[in-house]
TrEMBL record:
It comes from the Eukaryota. CDD domains: DD_CABYR_SP17. This is RIIa domain-containing protein. The chain crosses the membrane at residues 63-84. One of its GO terms (biological process) is sperm capacitation.
Length: 88
């Protein structure tokens, strides 16, 4: 059985993103991921679909890691503020 060119790469990229993000609502996550991928792909017209999938996966992974890092910093700063400035 043959599959369309680039489909395997796309499924691998989507799978990695779902495993990394661990979304509560997978259908919504996939909808957003694919919408962003389509937008990314339109900026890379004529590029090999496999490369677009992998490039987007790398871009998305860096963005996800950056957001997680910022969330950790925010939570840490908030915890320090609570310890240093108790409400009572």
């Amino acid at each position: 059985m043959t599959f369309p060119y680039g489909l395997k790469s796309l499924v691998e990229s989507i799978s990695r993103a779902v495993l990394l993000a661990e979304p509560a609502n997978i259908p919504d996550f996939l909808s957003n991921y694919m919408t962003e991928l389509i937008s990314f792909r339109s900026c890379h017209a004529g590029t090999d679909p496999k490369l677009v999938s992998f490039d987007f996966e790398e871009f998305w992974g860096k963005l996800f890691s950056f957001n997680v890092y910022n969330m950790i910093i925010y939570v840490t700063i908030t915890a320090v503020n609570i310890v240093l400035n108790p409400l009572y």
